[in-house]
Amino acid sequence: MTHVKTGLDRLLADPAHILKGRRVGLVANHTSVAADGRYGWIHFQEHDEIELVKLLAPEHGLYGVAQDMESVDSSVDPGTGLSIHSLYGHDEESLRPSPELFADLDTVVFDIQDIGSRYYTFVYTMAFCMEACREAGVRMVVCDRPNPINGHQVEGNCVSEGFQSFVGQYPILNRHGMTAGELACLFNEHFEIGCDLGVVHMEGWQRDMWYDETGLPWVAPSPNMPTVSTATVYPGMCLLEATQLSEGRGTTLPFEQCGAPGLDAYRLAERLNRKNLPGVQFRPQFFKPGFQKHQGELCAGVFLQVTHRERFKPLITGIAVLRAISQDFPDRFAWRDKPYEFITDIPAVDLLYGNPELRGHLLGANLSLLDIEQSWEPDTQAFLPLRREYLMY
User: Fold this and answer.
1) Are strands 23-28 and 51-57 parallel, antiparallel or unpaired?
2) Same domain, 136 and 65
3) What is the pLDDT of residue 87?
4) Do residues 80 and 217 both lie within one domain?
5) Which domain of life does the UniProt lineage start with (predicted)?
6) Does the pLDDT of residue 2 top 80, yes or no?
């Protein structure tokens, strides 16, 4: 098996030319793991040539304990005694670090594992730190890590103007096929953040690799991202967060299964299997969430068995699931009615999808799944040449 060397490990092998004599802030969580299995911040603190001043943590906190959209307070790290500044607090303003937070630093290092879907918030924490670095006159260094669902497949549409949020801050495809380091360069140059940016590249990673082909240990980036299989379906099944349906949170199979009380699991699976969606089969599934939506209730629905992950299209599959439930079980289907990522005036589904069209697509019986896919083509064709400019591997 190939053994990929992450940006963190390359940085730790020779930190002097980047970090020697500099006061450093590290934006990280528990995925910042070096080749020896220890956290990056432990290495930084122990290294004679690195002065680690503070830690900054994204959604879910430094150790990935908090659930989705759960506010995290700033605190002190028990392992190092360093202050942890939460970049996911109690309001939208807390998502953006102030330049004053970086005033006592020379360099901010970012090392967090992304999962390759536009919704995942870590890359926007990265972007907001880049903006603060620009204002503070501080250098930003991104330690690159693999895109776990490979770096060559793309799918979806871009976020439209007026629908930017913490699950879609920039007009990139839903499944973008880029690494965090590549996205940092895209954000910095094309979207004109304009900070002093450096990226520490990986060694040995190839674009067609899935995470389980890298030789790296999988560390669940968030509480409901336990496996590479979860990440594989997430670009489509995350759309269920915008509904009252359970996306499997509170179970051991989040996003791979979904449902609600009162659905006919066999009928739903049969309808979806008739669609002959590539690389996936559906089986009737029953589960009882231990927390969040439908906690303690018996839910009926489907499990997504990905049979060929190279052919599998997660976004159109997620849309097919939503359409089948909304059309066949309209009395059991409802959109989320609570704020989403601190936004109250735009429906969650519009924020996730990037525009209001999906709600109409689900109800439009005359619009096929192929029609929906084809509606993404202008965005895809516009994004691909731009994306190509920033690919590093």
Assistant:
1) parallel
2) yes
3) 98
4) yes
5) Bacteria
6) no
